[in-house]
From TrEMBL:
This is 1-deoxy-D-xylulose 5-phosphate reductoisomerase. It holds the Pfam family DXPR_C. Its cofactor is Mg(2+); Mn(2+). Belongs to the DXR family. Catalyzes the NADPH-dependent rearrangement and reduction of 1-deoxy-D-xylulose-5-phosphate (DXP) to 2-C-methyl-D-erythritol 4-phosphate (MEP). It catalyses: 2-C-methyl-D-erythritol 4-phosphate + NADP(+) = 1-deoxy-D-xylulose 5-phosphate + NADPH + H(+). HAMAP family: DXP_reductoisom. GO terms for biological process: isopentenyl diphosphate biosynthetic process, methylerythritol 4-phosphate pathway involved in terpenoid biosynthetic process. Residues 276-394 form the DXP reductoisomerase C-terminal domain. 1-deoxy-D-xylulose 5-phosphate binds at K128, S154, E155, S191, H214, S227, N232, K233, E236. It comes from Candidatus Synechococcus spongiarum LMB bulk15M.
């Protein structure tokens, strides 16, 4: 029986997608890429198809399909070419794929993720926005289908890795929404993002170019801005709540500028376990792909003496208001995290288009969450999640047009 794992990669042209494909190229006996999906980057997608020869390829931008077809006309055998949301969902549920890497950015990943779960695929979860917006929908769907959610976000991978050493049944280590036995506290490390050394008052002068320069990680633009506002860490708090079943009082954020410790867990006996490594997303991705195995790699080994020191400090809530907004939305639960997430996606998009100021991002999110309170629902279904997601995006646009913000 072949031990090669068949993988479908959603968002193959992004930072997560390209790193997943690098791993597959380095370890061809372990992983075979059977399906790919991208948004609209035809040049890179064409190269990837020629290199990995998947059985199916989907392009979210359906209008570009004829162009892709023309570019791949000489390939034999020809991959099945699909387009639009349905095409991406088909790649997510591709019959020969055993595991799906979710590298689409934002809530656009929700329907493909649901398609993968309904098809019983295991998931390497990078697309955190999906779980945050739709935790109450995704978790029961996982239980019904038996799909396993393997964290690929570096912090959640670190927690997951630390928990492998605790004496629990294996099933519980893959739990979703159920308290993890013996786990007392989660400590999520945060680099502090692009502005960690800036005074809070200096943030008035932030430009887009400043915000998209991450000190430690190379990632897509949206998550890099989320790191600068610390919304990324706030979203990860909600992600940790859903993945490991912890209450919000037991999930803490600590600033760790070197990004060497990727997160820590405190166990019932007060012992604290940490996972360390260079800031390199390939490692959590590889572990999500290979779990429960550990595969040998030739990658650069950690050198603590060269690093010299590891620093920690409490995050400054005044400088990073998005963090408290995320905790509040997570605590309220139901539809509120979906509204928080959609408002953030929309506000970050406006910021990247230079239509609002960096400091308007938390203002817009807060106003949008406030206005959702009267329509809040504690147990949304998928339709309601999609509805409040659309409402929040529209609300952010309206607030911006009413010049509620400074930009
Ligand atoms: N990058 C990291 O190191 C990192 C770490 C932890 C977690 N994550 C999470 O992983 C996810 C991806 O992040 P990223 O940094 O890889 O983002 P990215 O570099 O911006 O890539 C996003 C990918 O999604 C595709 N895409 C965009 N809109 C789409 C749509 N409407 N439908 C289908 N595909 C669409 C893009 O296609 P085109 O480019 O072809 O248009 C691209 O392939 C995010 O949820 C992020 O929070 C990322």
């Amino acid at each position: 029986m072949s031990t090669t794992k068949s993988v479908s990669v959603l968002g193959s042209t992004g930072s997560i997608g390209t790193q997943t494909l690098q791993i597959a190229a380095e370890l061809p006996e372990q992983f075979r890429v059977v399906a790919l999906s991208a948004g609209r980057n035809l040049d890179l997608l064409e190269q990837q198809v020629r290199q990995h020869r998947p059985q199916a390829v989907a392009l979210a931008a359906a209008e570009l399909l004829p162009n892709l077809r023309q570019r791949l006309n000489d390939l034999r055998p020809r991959p099945e070419l699909l387009a639009g949301a349905e095409g991406v969902a088909a790649v997510a549920a591709w019959p020969t794929a055993q595991l799906v890497v979710t590298g689409i950015v934002g809530c656009a990943g929700l329907l493909p993720t649901m398609a993968a779960i309904e098809a019983g695929k295991d998931l390497a979860l990078a697309n955190k926005e999906t779980l945050i917006a739709a935790g109450p929908v995704v978790l029961p769907a996982l239980q019904r289908s038996g799909s396993r959610l393997l964290p690929a976000d570096s912090e959640h991978s670190a927690i997951f890795q630390c928990l492998q050493g605790t004496p629990q049944p294996r099933k519980a280590q893959l739990s979703t929404g159920v308290p993890t036995p013996g786990l007392r506290r989660i400590l999520l490390t945060a680099s502090g993002g692009a502005f960690r050394s800036w005074e809070a008052d200096a943030l008035q002068k932030v430009t887009v170019a400043d915000a998209v320069k991450h000190p430690n990680w190379s990632m897509g633009r949206k998550i890099t801005v989320d790191s600068a506002t610390l919304m990324n860490k706030g979203l990860e708090v909600i992600e940790a709540h859903y993945l490991f079943g912890m209450g919000f009082d037991d999930i803490e954020i600590v600033i760790h500028p070197q990004s060497i410790i990727h997160s820590l867990v405190e166990l019932a006996d007060s012992s604290v376990l940490a996972q360390l490594g260079w800031p390199d997303m390939r490692l959590p991705l590889l572990y999500a792909l290979s779990w429960p195995k550990r595969l040998p790699t030739p990658w650069r080994r950690l050198d603590l003496a060269a690093i010299g020191r590891l620093d920690f400090q409490a995050p400054d809530a005044r400088k990073y208001p998005c963090m408290d907004l995320a905790y509040a939305a997570g605590r309220q639960g139901g539809t509120m995290p979906a509204v928080l997430n959609a408002a953030n996606e929309q506000a970050v998009a406006l910021f990247l288009e230079e239509r609002i100021h960096f400091l308007d991002i938390p203002r817009l999110i807060e106003r949008t969450c406030d206005q959702h309170r009267r329509d809040w629902h504690g147990a949304p279904d998928l339709d309601l999640v999609l509805k409040v997601d659309g409402w929040a995006r529209q609300k952010v646009g309206e607030l911006q047009a009413q010049a509620v913000v400074t930009g």
